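Dear colleagues,

As part of the handover before I leave the project, I'm documenting each prediction I ran so the next person doesn't have to rerun anything. This entry is a single chain, and its sequence is reproduced below.
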Amino acid sequence: MLAKVVAMVVVLAPGAVLADTSGFRCPGTGRLVSKGDTTDQVVARCREPDAATQHREVRTVRQRVRRWVGGVVVEVEEERSVEVIVEHWTFDFGKERFVRHLRFEDDRLVAIRDGARGSGTPE
């Protein structure tokens, strides 16, 4: 029993990052933010983030395409580089709630992580 209590304390210690979630309700509005939402949808449902950063990543993608080769359609795999705009947003909803870390790729929410308890004033 004591081991379980100690393990729970370690998981919830300040600064610990908890599991990835698929969505959350914004305090104040009660509106749901979910993976797949756009940045505009998140702002409309919640508010502007407390912090935001943006950078670009170049990724190599593979896709199967059909090509005419010698009068015959042949399916081949091609590689190409694509540029992805990545944004990291942080919401601090106050000491009674967890900080939310959101990752957007090309304007779509792809990851939501819970952080430690917030430090700001509640909404």
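Residues 2-11 form the longest helix (10 residues). The longest strand covers residues 72-91.

All the best with the project,
I.
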